[in-house]
Write a structure and sequence with these properties.
By secondary structure, this protein is an alpha/beta fold. The chain has one domain (about 10-110): NAD(P)-binding Rossmann-like Domain (Rossmann fold). The protein has 4 helices and 5 strands. The chain has helices at about 20-30, 40-45, 60-70, 85-105, and strands at about 10, 35-40, 50-55, 75, 110. The protein has a 5-stranded parallel sheet with strand order 3-2-1-4-5, with helices on both faces. Helix 3 (about 60-70) packs across helix 4.
């Protein structure tokens, strides 16, 4: 990635999950401004009000685009394993939708 600047922002998807909640403080400690994506922003803000939350869904192009606006990077920690027989196709579709939105937003890297 490019060298850090004061305005480097990363979008963290899956921020309320086990891995995301561990990754967020590590990113912040390295100087990243972390924007956290959640499907339920009111619930997330009740649990951690000091964080920068944005509501959206990785599978929805419009909400992904809004969440990615101004971000230099994104960390994709979303999965739906076990959420129905068609989870694999939904996973592929969501990841594709998100990656297209990131490309259109000028995001330099998705991890």
């Amino acid at each position: 990635m490019k060298p850090m600047t004061a305005d480097s922002t990363v979008l963290l998807t899956g921020a309320t999950g086990f891995v995301g909640s561990a990754v967020r403080p590590a990113l912040a400690a390295r100087g990243w401004r972390v924007r956290c994506l959640t499907r339920d922003v009111a619930r997330a803000r009740r649990r951690q009000p000091a964080l920068d939350w944005v509501e959206g869904d990785v599978g929805d192009a419009a909400s992904a685009a809004r969440a990615l606006e101004g971000c230099q990077a994104a960390i994709y920690l979303v999965h739906g394993i076990g959420e129905g027989a068609d989870y694999h196709q939904r996973e592929v579709t969501a990841a594709t939708t998100f990656s297209r939105a990131a490309a259109e937003a000028g995001v330099e890297r998705i991890v």
